[in-house]
Amino acid sequence: MVNYYWRGTDLTGKVLQGYSSAPNLTKIKETLRQRGVDRVRLFKMPNIQAITARSIPASQITLFIRQLSTLLSSGLNLARALEGIISGISNPQLKKMAEEILLELQNGDSFSKILARRDNYFDNFIIHLISSGESSGNLALLLERAAEHREKNRLLQQKLWKALSYPLGVFVFTLMISLFLLLQVVPQFEILFHNLGGELPPLTKKILDLTHFLKEYLFELLAIVAATVVTAVALYRTNLRVKTITDRILLSLPISGSSIKEVTISRLSRTLSTLQEAAIPLHIGLATAAKMTSNTPLQNAIKNIHASVIKGISLSNAIADETLFPPIAVQMVRAGEESGDLPLMLAHLANYYEKEVEQRISQLTTLIEPLLILLIGGMVGVLAIALYQPIFQIGHHI
Predict the structure, then answer these.
(1) DSSP line for 89-113
(2) Class of the domain covering 145-398
C-alpha cells in the first residue's frame, strides 16, 4: 500500500483534502472519484513504516510476545493485556504499534489479521500459531511457544556470530598492527639502513618494497577492496544465479557447510514441531519453514519436500529424497511417524542438532585460537627478522 496526500474539490467547488492509502495511483483516483472528489492533485507520501521497519529490535518484539502470553495466562483478556503492556513500553515505535493493535482489536479485527498486516515484525510462523490459538482458545500457550521459538533461534544466531566475530576481530586487529608497523616503524629502520650502508638482505628488501607500495597505493587498494565487497554483496542479494553458486560453495566447505545444514535442520524441526503441536497442517509448516533459511539449495530442498507432502508422500520419504538432509534426520522423522508422535521426535531432532552446532562452535574456537596465535606470531616474527637481520650482519662484520 502507498500513502497519498490529496487535494481536490467537491461538486459545489469546496476544497477538500486528506490522506488515503491505495496499491497504486489508478486505484486512489478511482476511489476519490467515487467519493465525489474532482480536480484531484496527488502527492505521494514516504512510507514511514518501511523507513522505521528496523526501529524495533527483534528482542523487544519477542519480549512483547512473552509479556502478552504471561498476562493472558493470568486470566486477563487480550485487550486488557495489551493495555497493561502499553503502559510499560519504553520504545516509542513499539508503543505506537501496540496502541494501533489495541485500537484495531477494539474495532473488531482478529488478532492474527492485525499482526498479519505488520509482516515486517511478525512472520507467518507467529501468524499461524496465533490463528490456531484463537480457534482453539489456547492463545496464551501458543504465544509462549512462539516466544520460546524466537528466543532459541536468537540464541543460536548469537552463538554463531560469537564464533565468527572472534577470529574476524583478531584478523582485523592483526592486519591493523601490521599496517602500522609497515607504514610507521619500517620507514624509521629504512633511514637507519641508509645511514649504515651496505647490501640489505633479500627479505628486508621485500619488506621495504612492500612498505613503498603501500605508502603509494594504500587508499587505492582500500577503495578496490571496498568496491569489490559492495559489488559482491549487491550481486549476492540481487542476482539469483550468483547467490545460488555462492550458497552451494558455502555448503561444500568442510566447516561452514555442516554448520549451515545443522542450523537449517534445527530450525526446520523446531518450526514443524511447534506448528504440529498447534494442530497446524504439515504442508503449512513446511511453507513457513522454507522462508526461514536464506541458503538457496536448502530452501529449494524444503520446497521440494513441501511439494512431495502435498502429493501425499510421507515427510520421512520426502526428506529421504533430498541428499542435503542426513540419514539421522530421516530415521528420527520416520520413528515419529510410526509412533504417532511426530511433534515430539521433531523436537528431539531440533535439540540434537542445536547441541551439534554448539559442539562444532566449541571445536572451531579451539582450532582457530592456535592458528590465530601462529598468524600473529608469524607476521611479527617476519617483520622482526627483516628489520634486525641487517643490523646483525653489520655487527658480525664489525
Answers:
(1) ---HHHHHHHHHHHHHHHTT--HHH
(2) mainly alpha
- Structure confidence by residue, pLDDT tens digits, 221-244: 889 989 999 999 888 888 888 999
Integer angstrom CA distances of residue 249 from 89, 199, 325, 327: 44, 48, 17, 22
Q: Quick one: residue 197, left, alpha or beta (phi over 0 = left, psi -120 to 50 = alpha)? A: left
Strand 2-9's sheet: what is its strand order? 15-22, 2-9, 38-44
CB 381 within 8 A of CB 389: no
CA 20 to chain centre: 33
* Whole-number Cα distances in Å, 130 to 273, 312, 329, 343: 15, 27, 28, 18
Task: Name the residue ranges covered by the structural domains of the chain.
Answer: 2-45, 58-144, 145-398
Task: Encode pLDDT of 336-358 as tens digits.
Answer: 999 888 999 999 999 998 888 88
For the beta carbon of residue 274, count every other beta carbon within 10 angstroms.
23
Q: Do 58-144 and 145-398 come out as alike in CATH topology?
A: yes
314/305 Cα distance (integer angstroms) = 9
* Topology given in CATH for the domain delimited by 58-144: Receptor-associated Protein (1.20.81)
